[in-house]
């Protein structure tokens, strides 16, 4: 029985596309929902074009009330009955209460070599620190931001003259390779970390 996967996005959904496109006939998982926290998210149309059900739970009407937003989010996700949640550029920090409901079933991709540079502006921070390499990480989601068990990493050399934008573009290309590999293993019950050169 294939695992059912819901993917949460906030923007263009390029990582969502890489995940959906990887879930072919031989994959242990299948996409059942792409959900965004705003109707303007470009990834929604890409998901619809791939025949995946979409939904929007806009966070803005819940301003200042994260609990009510997360209740609405949880309720809509549950309608799709997913086994796994993939955060793919979902730009909302989730509370411990929400995370606990999906403990061991929610994964995230983050654009740094965790535990370095949790949170935002990862590429600028790597360049400011003089790092010689950057990259991306996939991890299980826990209540502590970007601190869950590591499921995979891919490394990218920092090149002379790199800007946050040029570094981000090279890291993103690796995200599109790493995340599908990790999801395939995770859906099959294998949490052994994947390390790409």
Describe the structure.
The protein is α/β, with parallel strands linked by helices. It has a single domain, classed as Formyl transferase, N-terminal domain (Rossmann fold, 3-Layer(aba) Sandwich), CATH 3.40.50.170. Helices cover 34% and strands 23% of the residues. It is built from six helices and eight strands, in the order βαβαβαβαβαββαβ. The protein has helices spanning 14-22, 43-49, 66-79, 96-101, 122-128, 164-187; strands at 3-9, 29-36, 54-56, 84-87, 106-110, 133-140, 150-157, 194-196. It has an eight-stranded mixed beta sheet, with helices on one face. Strand 4, helix 4 and strand 5 (106-110) form a beta-alpha-beta unit. Helix 1 (14-22) runs parallel beside helix 6 (164-187) and helix 5 (122-128) crosses helix 6. The longest helix is centred in the last third of the chain and has 24 residues, at 164-187. The two termini are 32 Å apart. The model has no long low-confidence stretch (mean pLDDT 97).
